[in-house]
Amino acid sequence: MTNLAIDLMGLTLKNPVLGASGTYGSGFEFLPYYDVSLMGGIIGKGTTLRAKVGNPPGRLFETSSGLLNCIGLQNGGVDYFLREILPEVRKIDTHFFANISGSTIEEYGILAEKLDVDGVSGLEVNISCPNVKAGGLAFGTIPEDALAVTKEVKRKTSKKVMVKLSPNVTSIVEIAQAVEEGGADGISLINTLLGMAIDVEKQEPVLSNIFGGLSGPAVKPIGLRMVYEVYEAVSIPIVGLGGIVSVQDALEYILAGATAIQLGTANLINPLAGSVMIQGLEHYLVEHQIDDIRTLIGKAHHKEEV
Amino acid sequence: MPYATNGTITANILIHEHIYRMEIECADIAKEAKPGQFIQIRTSDHLMPLLNRPISIARIKDNRIEIIYAVVGEGTKNLCEMKTGATVSMVGPLGHGFETNLSREKVLLVGGGMGVAPLHALAEVLYAQGCEIDTILGFNRQEDIFSDKEFEHWSNNVYVTTMDGSCGIHGHACTPLDRHLSIYDYRHIYACGPQPMLHALGKICNEHHIDCSLSVEEYMACGIGVCLGCVQPIRDKAGSISYQRVCVEGPVFSSREVVYDDELGH
Ligand SMILES: Cc1cc2nc3c(=O)[nH]c(=O)nc-3n(C[C@H](O)[C@H](O)[C@H](O)COP(=O)(O)OP(=O)(O)OC[C@H]3O[C@@H](n4cnc5c(N)ncnc54)[C@H](O)[C@@H]3O)c2cc1C
Ligand SMILES: Cc1cc2nc3c(=O)[nH]c(=O)nc-3n(C[C@H](O)[C@H](O)[C@H](O)COP(=O)(O)O)c2cc1C
Ligand code: FES
Fold it and tell me: Which of A35, A77, B115, B161 could join B169 in a cystine, given CB atoms 3.0 to 4.6 angstroms apart?
């Protein structure tokens, strides 16, 4: 028997495949396509203290093997989530992580406190969303702020806390170490890379927000490099994401040091991506006579030591 | 319920300049599809183009669906090169289509450019329900006209308009409307086409208190409601405006729900 189950921050996940924030709805949207409870976990869409209307249309644009988006964190706010969405989420038998985004340190704390409820396995703290002018980006780019947010969230919740890092920084390692010092139980990376596109006919930016976050296969080498770097610098578990579409992509991230992986843009191009990935990983392990997926975590590093 | 599934291409024919008609055998989608719904079709086995392309279901026949598409970029170019017998991967049927609970009523269909595509299935259903159909088809030039003959089968009257006046009535699809509305008493107007046309039509219908359904378009990624990328401002019954997903709450909205360009910023 091959084992796909993993331990993440003290939680047992059926497998290392999670749905990424903003690309997986609240999970149940995928129920017409496959049994979502097969997933290792679900990360909810970005939730803020108050409802957010989001950016005007002109929110998406496809680039070479990539996708630019400036959704602007449209969501009904945390109270709406608790009232309307969480009861549905509870019906799905897998770990659910709430993804939170604040515009002040206090807001992150209040969100953490409100979400310290049954049906939420843990929090993913988005300190990196590049779309929102007032929040997001600043916390994820300044080590002291990243540390302060982490500390505040940890103080206000009994749940496991993973902090999601922004790749739009000079030194990802510095930020990773700061959130570890702040008490994070885990780290996920990467969020989207800030980018843009210009319409040459209209001679103006394509996205309503001018800038947007780049995701998809185009960003994979960057995410992979960052996971590799962070693995050598921290001892808390890493959840890797950024451009993962194929089984090969997922394995690369795991070998670079990711305990688990998230599928983002992959869900948008194939609603079956989660189930296909789980089957693919299982198939790979059987083919390669590997008993336990956990033996692959960070293996790409060990070669150097021999 | 939508499916993520494969279909077999049973025809992929150039019907007109850059416009193709593809017929796909796919029982799952065909048996669920309603006029005005769409599919997300994969245009490549590779990661370029990355996203699936949203295309309206033009006709539904037994276990087949038909799409009519214009080649405008890489994705639709790939589609037109696909061969009969090939497998194509799709998600669908998606979205809220047209309400077709009318029978024996007088209705008007208005299609602009590629917006004519989804009106085929609609005309077929309304015709079968005994509705009296008038159709206005608007195109840029004479060379762009397609399906006018087909609509004659379902319609009492088919009016063609061209922007350059090279055929039919000179102007856009709403040009004949003023005259029509004073003569006929339409129970419902259904439309699909470019946004300026839909907005002009929607406002006219609101002024005349005629029920009107507009099928709108927006750039899409997932097509299944999870990315929130395809939104447009929509007014609810209480009058408050929020961004709603064209792929789930739409693509068909009532002309009373649509927020018109000149209202924005107020
Ligand atoms: C619900 C819905 C139904 C549609 N039904 C049909 C149909 O029945 N027949 C048909 O020919 N076309 C239809 N379209 C438009 C079709 O999706 C686009 O023409 C197609 O995605 C272009 O892909 P491409 O790769 O060929 O071109 P690209 O290179 O991707 O784009 C070419 C041009 O098309 C524009 N475009 C890209 N995606 C969209 C989009 N989702 N909506 C509008 N414009 C877009 C781009 O901005 C660009 O100007 C529909 C769109 C929607 C949202
Ligand atoms: C449409 C869209 C919306 C997103 N929304 C969020 C969000 O609300 N919160 C968040 O932390 N990340 C969000 N992300 C980032 C993804 O979770 C992920 O970090 C990023 O897309 C990289 O992974 P990928 O290449 O697999 O998509 C969003 C991404 C996309 C494409
Ligand atoms: S295209 Fe993703 S929500 Fe509509």
Answer: B161
Q: Is the pLDDT of residue B266 over 70?
A: no
Rounded distance between C-alpha atoms, residue A49 and residue A82, angstroms: 11
Q: Which of B45, B51, B23, B18 is nearest to B219 (CA)?
A: B51
Interface size, chain A vs chain B, as Cβ–Cβ contacts under 8 Å: 94
CB B112 within 8 A of CB B193: yes
- In this prediction, residue A134 carries a pLDDT of 46
Q: How many C-beta atoms surround the C-beta of residue B6 within 10 A? A: 14
d(C-alpha B47, C-alpha B52), whole Å: 10
- Tokens 């790979």, residue located: A284
Q: What is the DSSP string of B15-43?
A: EETTEEEEEEE-HHHHHH--TT-EEEE--
Question: How far is ligand 3, taken at its centre, from the CA of residue B220, in Å?
Answer: 5
Q: What is the ipTM of this complex?
A: 0.94
Do the beta carbons of residue B150 and residue B127 sit within 8 Å? no
CATH 1.25.40.10 fits A6-55+73-192+216-301, yes or no: no
Confidence of residue B8 (pLDDT cuts 50, 70, 90): very high
Which residue's CA is minimally distant from atom 2 of ligand 2? A22
pTM above 0.90, yes or no: yes
